[in-house]
Design a protein that fits this description.
Number of domains: 2
Distance between the termini: 9 Å
Protein name: Homing endonuclease LAGLIDADG domain-containing protein
Oligomer: single chain
Keywords: Mitochondrion
Helix content: 25-40%
Structural class: alpha+beta
CATH class of the largest domain: Alpha Beta
Organism: Ulva flexuosa
InterPro entries: Homing_endonucl (IPR027434), LAGLIDADG_dom (IPR004860), LAGLIDADG_Endonuclease (IPR051289)
Pfam families: LAGLIDADG_1
């Protein structure tokens, strides 16, 4: 399925989306001290994808942060920096575009690269894998399964809790870029509009910071997302949670989620997703 990412144009959009979620560039304070460093941070479970991307780039290394359960794909050679720049230039959609523009300035000034600084991509997010990369960085898939309570355990108002099954997708992002103070509202509204939902905010109680949040659970929005990810698949281990989520979503769409078999399958799937997942496979990278 991910064979589409053997097309450089599409892989570039995916990497741009992944970078805009979990990447950053460290620029040198003084020229000749060191080259810029292009980073994407992965959860340690996604090491196979980091290694696969490293092999595609052909230059760089992976640094392991054991205490943080993370690994960081790092590119610092001029050859590697030119590769990631060429692949992603013109494919950025968030305020992080200023980082790739700084890198282009550095390459043009010190290595005669003559790279044009392309503007923010304004194409609909449905037309390329950028959104897939962004989901791999900052999206999450969840299943809600609320069992029906017997009458003797109903609440004090005398209302019996109904049995409920739903699939939820969530995407969360800061409201503004920390260095430029440019808002993320534009691109997040594009995503929300495409999915047929609103763009909301929430305040993190532990820090007091406000974040944008996109959530969906309706059949219409779920169908849009499934159709998109059928065209542009995820590449991190998140694809395993998505596949389980899609199985439940398809039961909901086909109205078989409240059958005895349906509820048993959903309960089993929910119990093994996300932080409860212990078995991983990377067959989806075999043809990539």
């Amino acid at each position: 399925m991910p064979i589409i990412y053997n097309q450089p144009h599409l892989l570039g959009f995916y990497i741009a989306g992944l970078f805009e979620g979990d990447g950053h560039i460290v620029m040198p304070a003084v020229y000749n001290k060191h080259n810029p460093r292009w980073h994407i941070t992965f959860h340690i479970k996604n090491q196979p994808l980091a290694q696969k991307l490293l092999s595609k780039i052909g230059s760089g290394f992976i640094r392991y942060k054991t205490k943080n359960n993370a690994c960081v794909l790092t590119v610092s050679s001029v050859k590697g920096l030119k590769w990631v720049t060429t692949m992603t230039n013109g494919k950025f959609r968030t305020p992080k575009i200023y980082q790739i523009h700084l890198l282009i300035d550095w390459l043009n000034k010190h290595h005669s690269a003559s790279i044009e600084k392309l503007p923010v991509c304004t194409k609909p997010v449905s037309r390329d894998p950028w959104f897939a990369g962004f989901i791999d960085a900052d999206g999450s898939f969840g299943i809600r399964y609320t069992k029906k309570l017997p009458l003797n355990k109903a609440n004090t108002a005398g209302k019996q809790r109904k049995q409920r099954v739903s699939c939820r997708f969530r995407l969360e992002q800061r409201t503004v870029d920390l260095k430029t103070n440019v808002s993320y509202a534009g691109v997040l509204n594009l995503i929300a509009n495409y999915l047929g939902v609103g763009l909301n905010t929430r305040m993190q109680t532990s820090t007091g910071k406000t974040y944008y949040i996109i959530e969906l659970s309706s059949v219409a929005s779920i169908t849009i997302l499934i159709n998109y990810l059928n065209m542009y698949p995820l590449l991190t281990a998140k694809v395993l949670d998505y596949n389980d989520w899609r199985t439940v979503a398809e039961r909901i769409i086909n109205k078989t989620h409240y059958t005895q078999d349906g509820l048993a399958e959903i309960q089993t799937i929910k119990a093994a997703m996300n932080v409860n997942r212990t078995v991983f496979n990377w067959h989806h990278l075999d043809e990539f």
